[in-house]
Design brief:
The protein has two domains: about 80 residues, RNA polymerase Rpb7-like, N-terminal domain (Dna Ligase, domain 1); about 110 residues, OB fold (Dihydrolipoamide Acetyltransferase, E2P). Strands 1, 2, 3, 4 and 5 form a five-stranded antiparallel sheet that branches. It is built from two helices and 14 strands, in the order E-H-E-E-E-E-E-E-E-E-E-E-E-H-E-E. The protein is mainly beta and about 200 residues long. This is DNA-directed RNA polymerase subunit.
Length: about 200
Amino acid sequence: MFVLTKISDLIRLDPLNFNTPLAEGLEDEINKKFANRVIHNVGLCICLYDIEDFNDGMTKNGDGGVFIKCTFRIIVFRPFVGEILVGWVSSCTEEGINIKMEFFDDIHIPKDLLFETCQFVPREQAWVWKNGEYDYYIDTNEKIRFRVEQEIFTQQQPRKPSSLQMSEDPANQEVIHPPYSIIGSCQADGMGLVSWWD
């Protein structure tokens, strides 16, 4: 689920950090720049793991900061296809189930990747797995175990300010896709709500 990724980048050290040790100042700036950011085809950056190397700093005319070339490793959330994860059901719709984790919300299980005999109950906004004589409900805020089937990276384009893109007609509103999302499934033994298998 978590991997170490090596990155080389030019980090700007703010003059306010000149009175702290260099390694601490670089750590703060790297975390500020990368933490909670998605790098395309890499994953969701969590935090700095360690700094492997850095060069002498360089200054630039008109800027009081110092620019330092750094090589460092960062902890990245990127589960592999086939990995089993546990999250919580955030919502149920006719298209499938949306799942959240403590730090990541863009997980979706489409209806065709649920159990074969699952049905959506619009009145209760829940999915029901009809297994023989028993009905197992999948409700919101329940703990669910699922398998990663696919990961989707979406290249983000610059958008207009929100005040300019508001539209009265929902058909004219721009659909915003997350930069990184996961498609999961429940079509295996032991998948589904954790409470079913206790």
